[in-house]
Write a structure and sequence with these properties.
By secondary structure, this protein is α+β, with helices and mostly antiparallel strands. It is 46% helix and 17% strand. The protein contains seven helices and six strands, in the order αββαβααααββαβ.
Length: 171
């Protein structure tokens, strides 16, 4: 349950769009439909329950304790997100390096909002050629993995390995 829902879930559900650009209190806009990005990404559910409010509180605390360092990380994440969004809008390939960099900034090397199970999924996806990053506020939930380009089909054995590890392929 959201304490202060952003409206992203409702927007995606009602509009049926694949990827949206969201800037709190500024913009929420569809930038790519599912057809445009199909076979270039995977979503894996860690099955770890999370509360977004807890990870958000963790980041707020980091902003109080180390404001300059934490804000610099948040700013880097913002720049990476803008670059990835621009690539999607222009129909260009999503940079796996930027996806990996984004995840590092969210994980133990940055804001520390990941979870061991999310890290396990990111490593698993990497073995199959996907760059993975946590989605949402972190702390559990899902990982989204991006392939280097559009695939004809998912790599052989990926779904089986994900399920063998106790996770679930959502898309």
């Amino acid at each position: 349950m959201h304490g202060k829902a952003s409206g992203v879930d409702v927007f995606v559900s009602t509009e049926g769009k694949g990827i949206i650009e969201f800037i709190k209190e500024v913009k929420m806009e569809a930038i790519a439909g599912v057809d445009e990005i199909q076979n270039s990404f995977i979503i894996v559910n860690s099955k770890v329950e999370r509360q977004a409010s807890m990870t958000i509180a963790k980041v707020r605390e980091a902003l109080k304790e180390k404001p300059e360092e934490t804000q610099a990380i948040i700013d880097q994440i913002g720049l990476i997100s803008e670059h990835i969004g621009a690539s999607i809008k222009e129909g260009k390939r999503i940079s796996q390096d930027l996806i990996r960099q984004n995840h590092r900034l969210l994980s133990d090397q940055g804001l520390k909002v990941s979870h061991p199970q999310l890290e396990k999924i990111v490593k698993l996806l990497d073995r199959f050629g996907f760059a993975g990053k946590l989605s949402g506020a972190g702390g559990g939930g899902c990982v989204i993995g991006f392939a280097a380009g559009k695939l004809e089909e998912m790599p052989q054995g990926l779904r089986e390995e994900v399920e063998k590890q106790g996770f679930e392929v959502i898309y």
